[in-house]
Amino acid sequence: VITKIKARQILDSRGIPTVEVDLYTNKGMFRASAPSSDSSGMYEAVELRDGDKGVYHGNGVMKAVNNINEKISEALIGMDPTLQSQIDQAMIDLDKTEKKGELGVNAILAVSIAACKAGAAEKEIPLYKHIADLSGGTNLTLPVPAFSVISGGKQAGNNLAIQEIMILPIGASKFDEALQIGAETYQHLKAVILEKYGAQGCNVGEDGGFAPNISSFREGLDLVKEAISRTGYNDKIKIALDVASTEFCIGTKYDLDSKSPNKSGQNFKSGEDMIDMYKELCSDYPIVSIEDPFDKEDWEHTKMFSSLAICQVVGDDLLVSNPKRVERAIQESTCNALLLKLNQIGTVTEAIEVVKLARDAHWGVVTSHRCGETLDSFIADLAVGLTTGQIKAGAPCRGERLAKYNQLLRIEEELGDQAVYAGEDWNKS
Ligand code: PGA
Ligand code: ZN
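^ thats the input. predicted complex w/ zinc ion below
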């Protein structure tokens, strides 16, 4: 049973406070922390921040920490850690608000993850296996990693409006090989950027992708194409984009020059223009997936683009891992893949439920990190246990990103002959 819960404030990969929790059972101590982002949309679960401007610029999380140490721990002590849904429900009941803003999603999620780790230990099975049990699944699959290699948007100080260009080693035979391909390509890309933009171009964004001072999709894609051609893995690597277009949508138009001080506002694109541009990009480059190609409220163009069936269309800001928005998108055929961010929804149980919705609709599922991360590698086990087929955890660079990819190496090693790499089935969750 759960005997003690102790939370504290730590710093995430951006140097901003987040919540860490130590949950104790008779089997030992289980630690988890909450990821974070400042892009949290109005539909996401809500982080509790202290708001005292004199302390960490208002970003302290001591209220959330105290909610765990007092209210949550009082409610959960004595519970069986294998009963994940009851633990999560107890916190939801205690919070009483739809978006978990009372206790804070940062408090609730950290405890939910710690309890899940404790549940696995209680059953003396690996965490990914416990997660598979909780979801009623029997298969375990190593996901295809989507490595961020070029960063833009709000994650980087260059003029690129779109947030990420990613590479997917779909043609690898094992996760281990996928990581090698990703890391080698990343190093080739560094050399390509060094030649064209000098050492400054090799600075990285929050997720570890390079942030050379480019301003267009094509400039970035050409760099990546060149790096891939230098690896000799051409046929094994596909490309994905996270456009995060909500960030540069103004009214009904898209400003791809939003970050170029001299050009902002001069090159507005309509939804139809964007569709034409995506069509061209998908035929010129091996792009297999586009995330948030349109604003989170622009369901119409997202649907028009999805219906062309050119590539996987992933809803992140569009869906915010929220079952109501996912149900609506399934009904209206708005997109065909879910980006799963745990702190958008708030508990392990609810994450499992929303993945089931996506899977029943034959969607792809991408397990995802946030820009503010910690060394917690829970999402690696989650991706394997829920067989999501894809994981996006940033570049093959920086400790908080590698924490997830390295954990996948360990899981693959542990599964031995039984390990299955999603590979060509990457978008079949
Ligand atoms: P975030 O998003 O910056 O809001 O964490 C990351 C992503 O969409 O990849
Ligand atoms: Zn996104």
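Residues 242, 244, 291-292, 316, 339 surround zinc ion (ligand 2) (CB under 6 Å).
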